[in-house]
Amino acid sequence: MSAASILHADLDAFYASVEQRDDPALRGRPVIVGTGVVLAASYEAKALGIYTTMNGRDALRICPEAAVVAPRMEAYSKASKAVYEIFHDTAPVVEGISIDEAFLEVGGMEHISGTPPQIAATLRERVLAEAGLPISVGVARTKFLAKVASGASKPDGLLVVEPGRESEFLHPLPIQALWGVGKVTTGKLNDMGIRTVGDVARSSRVRLAAAIGESSADHLLDLASGRDPRPVSPRERRKSIGAQSAFPRGSRSESEVDSLAAALVDRTARRLREAGRACRTVSISLRFGDFSRASRAHTLPFPTDQTETILAAVRELFDASREEIEEKDLSLIGVSLGNLEQADTVQMELPLAGKPDGSGRESAALDQAVDDVRSRFGEGVIKRASMIDADQGVPVPTLED
DNA sequence: TCTGGGGTCCTAGGACCC
DNA sequence: TCTGGGGTCCTAGGACCC
Hints:
The chain contains 16 helices and 15 strands. The protein is of the alpha+beta class. The structure holds a DNA duplex.
């Protein structure tokens, strides 16, 4: 059996800890980040029953003396970068999971930096000393075990799961500790009398599969039995970029919805370009007053990073959803860009009113588009300029260079 | 517990191609 | 003309995670 060489490092109450670090008056006090809903709560606040996603008014009812601060995303992003630098300084392979959480592979480093538990202890000291933040670390043979270990060690803890004692550690835990088990799956498994991870490990695959499907059954059986072959590996590139916005219930005029959608498109398209990517699939999501949801998607025949092209697609999707929107109370809209590609080939679209009529209007439009691209990206970037028949989507090459 | 704002992955059905 | 299997892409919805 291989040694425990995977670290899962997880910053404690991250946003709230950054606030307490930056404002000494908040230290030792219950702190709530987020004015509408609770985005993060300090451990002092958690101890009083405050949790993430809780309504801010309810939180203050429970704990009137709590300090409520508005989120400062830039400060969190900066703090995260500083911590990640320490991660990369600690291990050759770092797999970032989120702004406050990562896996580190530290096998084979005994002669350089010590055993995995020693490396984990040093990491915690450095993050506290250099970034001013408490962090919990789990050490185990697999990613899943390391992750559960860091959770069990919180707050400000270190827990090593020795390979010989994995079942002893894992099996008494409730099934919600398994990755992929949320409310719905918990209900299904409880109905079968399955409550702990050990219960899952002892279940028949056939019974599990009948309740939750083949793939989930295999996944849960593997995790519950300590099997998790996934190596720590740097994250693949992001697969989608999106933004959403919730608003109070009440009817929204068409133009209000449209301008909010345009703002969301503007934000996401900007992030897309900053990342040097282009998207092919544009989708919108809707949430209604009764919390039902709907989504619509459209895939373009070419990748784009252009706000206007994306906005045109988004408007069509909203048009296709108009009846639903009129019938129900809209409470959230979102825009998401998927099928991301490297932006080395980007298509710009310039719509032409009407059919080509031989007047030369279309080639003037094409020249204009070519000039636009050249002014943005410089000479020599254009591989081909084409005209596409919108009805058929067939590119008609008209200029090569 | 009456619900933020980011994401990922999975499933199922239909269109379309060979 | 009908039938079949296999594969890919797309859309919509759902569950889940931090």
